[in-house]
Amino acid sequence: MRRGWTTGTCATAAARAAADALFGGEFPDPVTVTLPGGQTPAFALAVTERGEGADGSPGELPGGPWAMAGIIKDAGDDPDVTHGALVRARVWRGAPGSGVTFRAGPGVGTVTLPGLPLAVGEPAINPVPRRMIAQAVGEAAAAAGQPADLVVEVGVENGELLAKRTMNGRLGILGGLSILGTTGIVVPYSCAAWIASIQRGVDVARAAGLAHVAACTGDLSEKAVVARYGLSEQALLDMGDFVGGTLKYLRRHPIPRLTLCGGFAKFGKLARGLMDLHSKRNSVDFDWLAARLADLGAGPELVAQARGANTAAQVLGMADAAGLALADHVAELARRAAQEVLEDAPVAVEVLVTDRQGRIVGEAHSPNSWPNPR
Question: In CATH terms, is domain 4-186 a member of 3.30.2110.10?
Fold first, then answer.
């Protein structure tokens, strides 16, 4: 299936084109950007515009010049709500020494609740897209011999309407969409194709005689496993949200050691016995997390705070602050749930729980069958 580009990549391309124009050049069309993995895709510009702050743009310097460019997002074959949306970036000069700062334009939301990787009040432009954009406009500034003191306003046409089809409202992101992406690339989401690729990965590992494989929910968890064990690429299964499909196939085609690695929120679902970790089909249960804190001895006030939390990461932070090993507890419950699906298959299970930075914060191992835990 055809891959596409994230909103973060489109915003980066738009910002680079606008920055080049702001510094006196032409709008590059197509404009090329560098992704976190080193790929250098090029994008055609859909719209361009130049102007002065006095015309109503939110420039910090009254009357100062600005430039804007827009990219039509192509999500490939993924059923992405932002496929075909116009992603704009307007760039103007900021205060001397301010560096690159960000604004939410029309259609991009603002963070209003804690627990996300952005502070309350910040535009919902995630950390990796911010780094991509800062790098791109910084390169434009360097090429022009100018300081990279720039304000970048990102907007998405009809973004406020599109955001109603996302989880943003429940997460406290109001006013529009989030600008997302960790690799810059959208991988098409086909359940059958994804599960088939997991099965083929198990087949390859078995054919290679591997005794240990790791099934991971994403890029950060995979990197955590590789850092710990140095596993070869053949030993890595891109499980995504399909933990049930992975375990059922391993039940029929066992490998002696299985590491399951993923984020706290997703593995909180596995710990409840859920085998599909996708947010659209199974959400975080804050009452359940609060009850697990109670299991660990949390007082009524902390339990109540957990029930009213905005994100699973926020609950994990509460547990850490209270010195309660919630991530380990969730890891053990997730391990038991996985072992139940495996039934009597000769597979020893380890569960590693990661935080949003990809650090291992909790773990559990099959008793007496996992050498050298931790």
Answer: yes
